[in-house]
Amino acid sequence: MKIAIFGGSFNPFTNAHLKNVETLLEQSDIVATVVSTENPHKSNDTMIPYFHRVNMAEIALKNTLYSKDERDYISFARMMMQKYPGPLRSWHFIDWFVNKSHKNYEPMLVFGEDLKEDFEKFERVDFLRENAEILFLPETSIWHATDVRAMIQSGNEEWKTHVPEVVANYIEMHGLYKE
Length: 179
Prior knowledge:
- The chain has 179 residues and is an alpha/beta fold.
- It has seven helices and four strands; from the N terminus they run βαβαααβαβαα.
- It has a four-stranded parallel beta sheet with strand order 2-1-3-4, with helices on both faces.
């Protein structure tokens, strides 16, 4: 059974992220969408609290793509956070599959293409290469989460067309990305 581990900041969760999950479901049996607690390869200056990013990813996936098919395991990261102290890294997830009784899974680590250049800097990169398929997803949109945040801050209402409606409602309800 192939499991795609799709990690990211999801700051916020966008329509492009949703499209990536849809694509991964065509290539794997399970997609574990993992919201990173921090991103050592990007600036964390504009990162909103983890619980907001997890909530947005959960509602986007459950209210759009997964209304009938619960093949996404976003709670996987929560379980992993209990198992490994400190910030989670990509190798923690692969280690869990390789060294535990989960040998029936074929892990595939999935990243946005924006991390391709930084992949060599990942902790235990050789371990990752030896034990998982590595996939960098091509850009699916000209709009990135960074652009969505900038539009919100500038008052440009177009940002709402780049995130699932439930995510737009969540952002507005909690007043996120205003500063």
